[in-house]
Amino acid sequence: MNENERMAIEWQCARLANNYANRLDAYDYPGFLELFSDDAILNMLGREYAGKAAIAAWLDGREADMVCRHLVTNVTTDVIDERHATGFNYTISYRVRGWRGREPALFEAPTFLVEYRSVFVRGSSGWLFARRGVSAALAGEEQMRLLRPDANGGS
Q1: Structural domains in the chain, sorted by start
Q2: Strand bridging mode 112-123 / 84-96
Q3: Are the CB atoms for 84 and 77 separated by under 8 Å?
Q4: Radius of gyration of the chain, Cα coordinates, nearest whole angstrom
Q5: Tens of pLDDT along 51-85?
Q6: What is the pLDDT of residues 79-115, one digit of tens each?
Q7: Residues 6+ apart with CB under 8 A from 122
Q8: How far apart are CA 140 and CA 112, in angstroms?
């Protein structure tokens, strides 16, 4: 693989990380699920969802009236070969309940700073997430309660 091919893979995987945030924030669940391989695993803050059906069930459990914006930064991709790569990024999450459809929402402090660790695979339609792990680096008070092992639900 030459340098241009490696850089193209890095760019495509970075775009995937950004599309993950944009589609989640837009409640574009069909588009969000297109970013994952059929057997993908999403580990959301210690709760694992295996396969698109399980990821879709997690999406259905999200608050429907929340304005949410994920700001993605520090994106890095390590290309393994033409079909495999790994990646990392930070994301700051802003969330305000009860304002979706009535934007602009009242501005509140970010609720999370999370770290994403990803495994990418090249499928027939392009690069996809094979595995996406989300862990909290910083969390607000309410989110800290949700992160306790005995808490129900998720982010």
Answers
A1: 3-147 (3.10.450.50)
A2: antiparallel
A3: no
A4: 16
A5: 999 999 999 999 999 999 999 999 999 999 999 99
A6: 999 999 999 999 999 988 888 888 888 888 888 899 9
A7: 82, 83, 84, 128
A8: 6
Q: Using CA atoms, how far apart are residues 104 and 10, in angstroms rounded to an integer?
A: 34
Reported as type and span, the H/E element at residue 5 is helix 3-25
Helix and strand counts by DSSP (H, E) for the chain: 4, 6
**What is the token pair recorded at 147?**
């992160």
CA pair distance 155, 135, nearest whole angstrom: 11
| Cβ(130)–Cβ(40) below 8 Å | yes
Closest C-alpha to 14, from 116, 109, 92, 104: 116
CA dist., res. 109 & res. 96, Å (int): 9
Residues contacting 5, CB < 8 A, separation 6+: 82
